[in-house]
Design a protein that fits this description.
Length: 105
């Protein structure tokens, strides 16, 4: 017998297009990034458990939603990764000499 997926009213199904987009964002994260998201999630749950302040949960949910929207519509994460590994071009000697003149006078 196949398990039945039961959700509360208003909760999107596993195959909802928004959920699929979010899972694509999750799958594109490195394991360190996924670990960071889960750590943030658990810290939020623990904060709610200690304080019963719903704002902890609301702010985290909004943060995750913004992350999914940003990363599913831009190449920002890839650009950040590319920059992390990029070796900067050395300054031309004339640029350094001009900078030294400006600093001295």
């Amino acid at each position: 017998m196949k398990p039945v997926d039961v959700t509360r009213p208003g909760v999107p199904a596993k195959d909802d297009p928004q959920v699929k987009v979010a899972m694509g964002v999750w799958d594109a994260l490195t394991s360190d990034e996924q670990r960071e998201v889960f750590q943030s999630l658990y810290r939020t749950v623990a904060a709610y458990g200690h304080t019963k302040d719903i704002d902890h949960l609301t702010r985290f949910a909004e943060s995750v939603d913004r992350m999914v929207r940003l990363e599913s519509t831009t190449d920002l994460r890839q650009r950040i990764r590319d920059q992390r590994n990029a070796v900067p071009e050395p300054a031309a000697p004339a640029d350094v000499e001009d900078l030294l003149r400006r600093l001295e006078g």
